[in-house]
Design brief:
Blueprint (H helix, E strand, L loop, with lengths): L1 H15 L1 H5 L19 H13 L18 H15 L15 H8 L3 E5 L2 E5 L10 E5 L6 E6 L4 E6 L2 H17 L5 E2 L1
Parallel strand pairs: 1-6
Antiparallel strand pairs: 1-2, 2-3, 3-4, 4-5
Length: 189
């Protein structure tokens, strides 16, 4: 009788949709709705999908005690290492913008009042007019080497650091998101 009640309760949960909620991944997005690995192919896609989407290994580094990966640290480390050995780079969901270590970067993003997106160069300014060159943050996505940083031409400050093309893309997206959060539309040329 107890087994029949347990089975009936489980079926009730599934039929009401509660079972689907309980089955979600820690980041609350099922792998079928995540896109971070869409640019990968072959074994790299499988490993990326396992690390970033199915196991949610990146949640171990998100500083939120309420979210935990769906796998052990050992399993995550093995999958990450295999991905790195195959591709020569880190898994996409672990890429960060190193420019957040520049204090002016964070202040500029928080106070963004203008944004210009020109051929892979994104400029965000705390001034309503991004030109003529007030203090601003910029990324060079198409140059070699790729750099990002805080530049103030008037004060002759050029605090830039080299980044990988993948990190530059993360920085660019972070910059665009900051502009959008401040209700600023990036002007494209």
């Amino acid at each position: 009788m107890k087994a029949h009640l347990t089975l009936a309760f489980a079926l009730l949960l599934v039929c009401t949709g509660t079972g689907a909620i309980l089955a979600q991944t820690p980041d609350m997005l099922p792998p079928s709705r995540e896109t971070v690995c869409d640019d990968e192919t072959g074994a790299a896609f499988g490993l990326c999908n396992a690390y970033c989407e199915a196991m949610d290994c990146e949640l171990a580094n998100d500083s939120n005690p309420g979210t935990e990966p769906h796998a052990s640290a050992t399993a995550c480390s093995k999958v990450r290492t295999k991905f790195q050995n195959i591709t020569g780079r880190d898994v996409p969901c672990e890429l960060t913008c190193p420019c957040t270590s520049i204090p002016e970067f964070n202040a500029t993003l928080a106070n963004a009042q203008a944004c210009v997106d020109f051929l892979g160069i994104v400029v965000v300014s705390p001034s309503p007019n991004a030109f003529p060159f007030p203090p601003f943050f910029l990324e060079y996505a198409g140059s070699d080497p790729v750099r990002c940083g805080y530049v103030n031409f008037e004060a002759n400050i050029f605090n830039t650091i080299p980044v990988t093309p993948e990190q530059a893309e993360v920085c660019i997206q972070l910059t665009r998101d900051a502009a959008a959060n401040n209700n600023v539309t990036c002007q494209t040329f």
